[in-house]
């Protein structure tokens, strides 16, 4: 069951809560655009992508350090970490596309 915060969002003009399904704010009449609704829900998918990208960056740095130390095990684990980060990034992109077109 969705909570009240998932069903409503604040009006950009008056700040009062408005249903996500409303075409306009019932308090001030401001039209509620679909882009605003997408922006509110897309933040979690952007966060998933950002975490995946960060994991990839850390993994690339670890590969460079591991290669300099000539540690094959560390290079392998760093490549595995990169793969995990890449998969997370791709999943975030896929979810954003699936939910917002």
Quick summary:
The chain has helices at residues 4-7, 34-69, 72-100; strands at residues 8-10, 17-19. The chain is mostly helical.
| SSE pattern, N- to C-terminal | HEEHH
Helix content: 55-70%
Q: What share of the residues does DSSP label as strand, in percent? A: 5-15%
Alpha-carbon distance between the two ends: 24 Å
Structural class: mainly alpha
Total strands: the figure is: 2
How would you characterize the overall build of this protein?
- This protein has 101 residues and is mainly α.
- The chain has 2 domains: 1-32, no CATH class; 41-101.
- Helices cover 68% and strands 6% of the residues.
- It has 3 helices and 2 strands.
- The protein has helices spanning 4-7, 34-69, 72-100, and strands at residues 8-10, 17-19.
- The protein has a two-stranded antiparallel sheet.
- Helix 2 (34-69) packs antiparallel against helix 3.
- The radius of gyration is 21 Å and the shape is rod-shaped.
- The relative contact order is 0.13.
- The model has no long low-confidence stretch (mean pLDDT 84).
Can you tag this structure with a few keywords?
about 100 residues, mainly alpha, 2 domains, 3 helices
Layout of SSEs?
Layout: H1 4-7, E1 8-10, E2 17-19, H2 34-69, H3 72-100
Antiparallel strand pairs: 1-2
Helix pairs in contact: 2-3
